[in-house]
Amino acid sequence: MGPQVRVCVLLAALVGGCQNPKTGAPLTLADVFEPLRPSTPAATAPADGGESFSVAGDAQTPRTILQLHFDVLRTQAPVGTFSQSDKIWNHLDEKVVPAELAAVLQKNGLRIGRGKMSAWHPIKAILDLEKAVQAFQNGITLHNGLPLTIELDQRPQDQSPFVYRPDGTLRGLRLTAGMNLLRIEYAIPVTHPDSVLIEMMPETRLEAPEPRLTVNGWTQRPPVRPSEIFRELSVRMLVGPDEFVAVGPSSAVTMPHTLGALMLIDQVENQPRESVLFITPRVIRKQIKPALVSGGG
User: Fold this and answer.
1) How confident is the model at residue 267 (pLDDT cuts 50, 70, 90)?
2) 115: Cβ contacts below 8 Å, ≥ 6 apart
3) Please, what is the average pLDDT of the chain?
4) Rg of the chain's alpha carbons, rounded to an integer?
């Protein structure tokens, strides 16, 4: 990685806007970091192209494997509890999102902030006082560098979102049998080894194409389902070891075709309810024995 890209991402991690010097396209985390690689010297690749953890040097020295764990708490409440009130947002730092991007997200029905763990106690007290608040918690540990996708729908649905874009234009789409997701790409910066650099964006996973027969009579299915990734609405931020991120609805969720309304509004027992996601990423370092490091198994 050249110095131009390194400086760009370190300075722009909280503001975005850099471009890949080779392609001219907006930088993604995959352009800058190789996340979650084993912390070992001189790793070698096997002849068959698969991943190997064989290393040169002292075979008796334990190796460290980096993993990321994400805790995701989803809270649901009657519409207006979060979107029409600043109660929880007063305890979060929304300036972590650049003002122009935050305004665009607001139009799209989305609101994002970063909080310190010390802010969780007053937020939890507010949630405990609200009526009909439900919470669902899940956790996942990742070690392969693939994006984390949080499913926000119970079932696929046809939808026609209208997306307010940063250039001031309005884009309309027709998405068939789509599942709304929150996509999170991530990396561990070398300058902040206990923090996680994340990039969040809406995504709609689309209906898989029908399988087709090949000339040999085998049924062929696409390896990856197609999706609509709204990368122009991505938010990049550094999350420290004592911090978490909140993603919730803005006041614009009253407009039914905004992304926020489609992602964060559900019908529960014929009553509309809105959600806020509290996401806590954590870096995990695990030492493994040389026997587990050696060999290409």
Assistant:
1) confident
2) 91, 92, 93, 123, 243, 244, 245, 246
3) 80
4) 21
CA atoms 256, 262, 263, 269: torsion sign: positive
Q: Which residue has the higher pLDDT, 222 or 99?
A: 99
Phi/psi for 16 (5° steps) reads 70, -175
Q: What tens digit of pLDDT does each residue of 268-292 get?
A: 888 899 999 999 999 998 877 765 5
Report strand pairing: 235-239 vs 196-205: antiparallel
Helix (H, G, I), strand (E, B) or coil at 190: coil
- How far is 209 from 12, CA to CA, in rounded Å? 38
User: CA dist 88 to 36, 74, 107, 188, 282, Å?
Assistant: 33, 14, 20, 28, 22
Q: Name the CA dihedral angle for 152, 154, 155, 160, rounded to a multiple of 10 degrees.
A: -40
Give the Cα separation of 199 and 148 in Å (integer).
Answer: 10
Check pLDDT > 90 for residue 237.
Answer: yes
- Asked if pLDDT for residue 10 goes beyond 60, the answer is no
Total Cβ atoms within 10 A of residue 98: 15
Phi, psi of 268 (to 5 degrees): -120, 115
